[in-house]
From TrEMBL:
Substrate binds at residues 72, 77. It catalyses: (6S)-5-formyl-5,6,7,8-tetrahydrofolate + ATP = (6R)-5,10-methenyltetrahydrofolate + ADP + phosphate. InterPro entries: FTHF_cligase, FTHF_cligase-like_sf, NagB/RpiA_transferase-like. It comes from Insulibacter thermoxylanivorax. Keywords: ATP-binding, Magnesium, Metal-binding, Nucleotide-binding. This is 5-formyltetrahydrofolate cyclo-ligase. Belongs to the 5-formyltetrahydrofolate cyclo-ligase family. It comes from the Bacteria. The keyword Hydrolase does not apply. The keyword Plastid does not apply. Transmembrane segments: none annotated. ATP binds at residues 10-14, 157-165.
Amino acid sequence: MHLDEVRRRKSELRNKIIQTRDELPPEERSSKSEAICERLIQHLKQELKLGRMDGRSVHNRSEAPCTILTYLSFGSEVDLYPFISWCWQQGGRIAAPRTIPAERALVFHYIEGLADTEPVPPYGIREPLASLPAVIDPAVIDMIIMPGTAFDEHGHRLGYGAGYYDRYLAQIAARLGKLPPLVAVCYELQIVEQIPAEEHDVKMQVIITESRKIYT
């Protein structure tokens, strides 16, 4: 398939799924988000053994707190605040993205509460304060929670079209020679039969919806 055709199909699918997602009633969106967060917590306990379950620190790698990179939800995206709050309670470290539009780049900063964030124009998406410590060494990252507009069961992701995460993941891969576990979260309605893929697209290892966990 010609590259222009791939991108046209991506754009059409992106617009369709966002419209469908936006039509979810707020109460349904909230309940689905809570279910996704619970599945994500269980996945994190299983895969990384994060936190002080039963009063014990059982982190799989060391006594250092687990480091999770996650987005801050906007609009009709899955609201991850219950998951983020749980991580803080367990002593985990949360880092959220700040955009650098001129470079179409992301910098992740550690946050300890919503007071460490601010709405950024033009859309009012919350981002960390630029003065906060940033994630410098990608080797400390235990997991990246990935947003997106659509996914398929093979792990392909359709983003928002600007390529911010593609560039960030490419930087990590160049430095480490590999990527941390990539976990996508979405509503079941965002799962499609096939995402038109490009050469630079990175696959997710796990996709979590309100009703299931998909290993790709």
